[in-house]
Design goal:
Radius of gyration: 17 Å
Oligomer: single chain
Strand content: 5-15%
CATH class of the largest domain: Alpha Beta
Helix content: 40-55%
CATH superfamily of the largest domain: HAD superfamily/HAD-like
Largest sheet: 6 strands, parallel
Shape: globular
Distance between the termini: 5 Å
Number of helices: 8
Order of helices and strands: EHHHHHEHEHEHEE
Number of domains: 2
C-alpha cells in the first residue's frame, strides 16, 4: 500500500524516553530540584523543550537545553536501544522493495546509534536537526525529503509516537500512523494506530 515509510526516531525507532528521563533527573539533581521519574517521563513525552521549561533552573533556556543534551549524549551511546522489533520492520520494508527514512529533531547522534544497532543499511536517508529546518509540525523538512526523493505523497506514510508527528504528516499532505503502545495520545486523529512496530508490516 505504501512505498516510502518515514519514521520519527526518539520513541519510534529508539526506546529513548527512559534515557531522556535519566538525563533529566541528573540535570534536576545538579540544580537541587526534585521530581519523580514518572512525572519527568510524562513531561518528556510531550517534548523535551516543554519538560525543561517546566522547571525553574534560573538559567537561560538555551544553556539548560545544551546541558541536558550533553548529559543525554554521554549516556545514550551506552544505554539507548532500539525497540525490539525495529530491525524486523525496517528489514521487511527493504525486502519488499520499499524505502525507509528517518525524520527527527535529534542530531548527529541518531546516525551513530543507527550504525551501532545495525540499522543504517536499511535507511535511505535521514533528516535531522543538523539541517536546521523548522520544527514539527511545520512541514518544511518533510516536504524537502519528499521532493528530494521524488516521493509520491499517496505512497508515503509518516510513523511517529506523538501528536506532532501526525500533524506534520497531515500538513505535508501524507498519511500518518501513531505508534503509541503506552496510550499517551488516545485522541490523535491518525489514519492508523499501532501498539508494536511489527504491526506496521500488515499496514504497509
Amino acid at each position: 500500500m505504501y512505498q516510502d515509510i518515514i519514521y520519527d526516531f526518539d520513541g519510534t525507532i529508539s526506546d529513548t524516553y527512559p534515557v531522556f528521563t535519566e538525563a533529566l533527573l541528573i540535570l534536576l539533581e545538579r540544580y537541587g530540584i526534585k521530581d519523580s521519574y514518572e512525572n519527568a517521563y510524562l513531561l518528556l513525552k510531550k517534548s523535551v523543550g516543554q519538560a525543561l521549561k517546566s522547571y525553574n533552573f534560573n538559567k537561560k533556556y538555551s544553556e539548560i537545553s545544551n546541558e541536558f543534551a550533553t548529559i543525554h549524549n554521554e549516556i545514550a551511546f551506552k544505554k539507548q536501544k532500539p525497540y525490539p522489533d525495529a530491525l524486523l520492520l525496517l528489514k521487511s520494508v527493504v525486502d519488499a522493495g520499499k524505502c525507509n527514512y528517518i525524520y527527527t529533531h535529534s542530531g548527529a547522534l541518531v546516525t551513530e546509534l543507527m550504525k551501532k544497532w545495525g540499522l543504517s543499511e536499511y535507511i535511505t536517508d535521514t533528516i535531522d536537526s543538523t539541517l536546521d529546518f523548522p520544527r514539527k509540525p511545520d512541514p518544511a523538512a518533510l516536504n524537502f525529503l519528499l521532493n528530494k526523493h521524488n516521493i509520491v505523497k499517496k505512497s508515503a506514510l509518516m510513523v511517529g509516537d506523538r501528536d506532532i508527528d501526525i500533524d506534520v504528516a497531515h500538513n505535508a499532505g501524507i498519511d500518518a500512523c501513531l505508534y503509541d503502545y503506552e496510550n499517551y495520545y488516545p485522541d490523535v486523529n491518525a489514519e492508523y494506530s499501532v501498539k508494536t512496530l511489527s504491526d506496521l508490516i500488515n499496514i504497509i
